[in-house]
Design a protein that fits this description.
82% helix; 8 helices; mainly alpha
């Protein structure tokens, strides 16, 4: 839940892109927001491990989901590092770029963006797959309310459909939508994990 809160803050503060001159001016904000995203990752992984342990009746599904989300978290860490650390550190060498310099570094920035998007796609796919597997495990056990399982599956399917219908999830607006949707499931699941299981309550 703490990791999710840090992700919400990150996406809320995340600056929009723009010209090279604009990116240079906001380089400090870029570093701060993406550093928050990187800091959130260990907390997220710890929470996912807690969910995995809670769903002990379905060890194959829950463990596989954990492995997949770990791959996704590594990918999103690389995305944050590339876009939030590499980019501003690179641009600091061009504080007052000439038109010739801007034309020279534009292809490098395009490659940086493509690399960042590749990591984002890996993260989105991993998060959808892991959420689906955990949700199926929830439906097959009596550890958490089944509605959170149906919600997770529906959310993952929605994002997969959006991807295949051409909706851009890797620009700032699309990624915010994805993160806020995913975080809503994580926060609700985190809250439910802290409660006694339905088995223990006799429901």
């Amino acid at each position: 839940m703490l990791g999710s809160l840090l992700m919400i803050i990150t996406m809320g503060l995340h600056p929009a892109g723009g010209s090279i001159e604009h990116l240079i001016r906001i380089s400090s904000l870029i570093i701060i927001t993406h550093s928050l995203a990187i800091v959130s990752i260990p907390f997220m992984v710890l929470g996912f491990w807690g969910l995995t342990k809670r769903l002990y009746d379905q060890p194959l599904l829950s463990t596989f989901a954990f492995i997949i989300i770990c791959m996704g978290m590594i990918a999103v860490m690389f995305a944050a590092a590339v876009n939030g650390l590499v980019l501003p550190l690179f641009l600091k060498y061009f504080k007052e770029p000439s038109p010739e310099t801007i034309n020279l570094i534009k292809p490098i920035l395009m490659y940086n963006t493509s690399l960042n998007h590749a990591f984002d796609f890996i993260y989105i796919g991993a998060a959808c797959a892991a959420t689906t597997l955990w949700s199926i495990a929830i439906l097959k056990t009596n550890e958490l309310p089944k509605w959170i399982g149906y919600f997770g599956i529906s959310l993952a399917l929605l994002f997969i459909i959006l991807l295949f219908t051409g909706f851009t999830l890797v620009d700032l607006t699309g990624f915010r939508i994805f993160i806020f949707g995913l975080v809503s499931w994580i926060m609700l699941t985190g809250y439910l994990i802290r409660r006694p299981s339905l088995k223990q309550s006799g429901s």
